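FAQ
Q: What does a multi-component entry look like?
A: The components come first, one per line:
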Amino acid sequence: DSGVTQTPKHLITATGQRVTLRCSPRSGDLSVYWYQQSLDQGLQFLIQYYNGEERAKGNILERFSAQQFPDLHSELNLSSLELGDSALYFCASSAWGPGTEAFFGQGTRLTVV
Amino acid sequence: GQQLNQSPQSMFIQEGEDVSMNCTSSSIFNTWLWYKQDPGEGPVLLIALYKAGELTSNGRLTAQFGITRKDSFLNISASIPSDVGIYFCAGQDSTLTFGKGTMLLVSP
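Then the predicted structure of the entire assembly, as tokens:
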């Protein structure tokens, strides 16, 4: 158990809908990363937060947004969903930014039908 | 953004053989991390490397942080069937960038 908790584990929704994925980092970790993993893709970096503030942005679509709350949990919001958004979404946390180990949650499998 | 080149893309070996995989980057990283991912699961951290030239072992796994800080390798000795999975390298500076992974298959 990495200590990073993601909910829900599975999500099935229709095109055009909006969903929210939740991540609770390991106790004491200030940094949260979000990644998307499609079937034939590696881990695509979406966005990183550190202590409530956006730290870095990857290839995150404008339809997607995220935030990190004062209690350090994070939410990834996906809207106007398309079939191609079906993927595994992972959250990782680390104690602080550079030079520390990042630990992953079990992921949320999103299926858009 | 930064790109990590991880090779080989896949390997199919016999149980007991040693395995080597590596990652190279066009940019310098402060930290190299190696992860293993089983199907449908989250990546699990295997080894973390913090200094150029550092050689670290974790059981049958050995990894090195390249002197130039632009590369790293992972060796697995005496492979066993449960080593099957996808191995990812990741370089860390202001964020965490992953290679595309090496799929390892081990035949009993």
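Q: Is there any commentary attached?
A: Sometimes. For this entry: Chain B has a mean pLDDT of 93.
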